[in-house]
Design a protein that fits this description.
The chain is an all-alpha fold and 250 residues long. It has 10 helices and no strands.
């Protein structure tokens, strides 16, 4: 991974964007940073580069939402994530970079498709809260997609929306879940050798951008409507996701 001008030109806004999303909006848009970076570096290196920064953002945003989460829902999602992470480890050991480009691209495009279907009313949030089994299954899906593309947010968001939580409880639960899930992922990434000297040095250089994004996200959570933010997210994910799928298949 070369830390050149092109890398930083994409990495700085991507990391700030991730911080804003994780700090203020709990619908999974933070993972848009992954497909953006996967355009210029090996997607597996992109995963290793982003995880410590996501963990830094988790730490920075935990205090404003401390103990405002739904522990029952968080516990189910965290327990369910463990076998999902194990599946991700198994895939990583046999898959090459193009498989991860394809997965990241497909998840990106699917995220946009699902969100648009929800907006148009084709997919509706369950009228009754989802049960414990649904929480565990959702956790499994979130653990796997989080491992392979840092994209565990969408399935978690769909489950938590069915629980009819307040906006702040929704966000606090999301912060707690991925704060814990990312610790598990860090152990797995270390075991697999995903972290490198270059990715860790890049983390040091871009830590201020991550903290800036987290601070902006907490402020935006109280002041800004989500429509414009997610409109930009959908455009970015559609373009980058389509490009990654094309690159993987060709």
């Amino acid at each position: 991974m070369e830390l050149d001008a092109t890398f930083f030109l994409l990495a700085i806004p991507a990391v700030v964007f991730a911080g804003i999303s994780k700090g203020g909006f709990g619908s999974g848009a933070a993972f848009a940073a992954t497909p953006i970076l996967a355009l210029v570096i090996d997607p597996r290196l992109a995963l290793g580069f982003l995880l410590p920064l996501l963990m830094l953002i988790d730490a920075a945003t935990l205090k404003p939402y401390w103990r405002r989460w739904s522990w029952h829902d968080a516990r189910l999602l965290i327990l369910g994530s463990l076998p999902g992470i194990a599946l991700g480890v198994a895939l990583y050991r046999v898959a090459d970079a193009d498989v991860f480009r394809l997965l990241i691209g497909l998840v990106s495009v699917a995220f946009v498709a699902v969100r648009l279907a929800q907006i148009r009313g084709w997919i509706r949030t369950a009228e009754r809260p989802a049960g414990e089994v649904a929480g565990l299954v959702t956790g499994l899906a979130a653990g796997f997609t989080s491992f392979v593309s840092h994209a565990g947010g969408p399935p978690v968001a769909i489950y938590l929306l069915s629980q009819r939580l307040t906006k702040t409880a929704f966000q606090a639960t999301t912060v707690l879940v991925f704060g814990v899930v990312n610790v598990f992922k860090a152990v797995a990434y270390t075991f697999l050798g995903i972290f490198t000297v270059e990715t860790l040095w890049a983390n040091v250089l871009l830590a201020p951008a991550a903290l800036l994004g987290a601070w902006l996200g907490v402020k935006a959570h109280r002041l800004v409507e989500e429509r414009m933010f997610f409109g930009l997210t959908y455009v970015l994910l559609t373009i980058t996701g389509t490009k990654l799928v094309w690159d993987a298949l060709t």
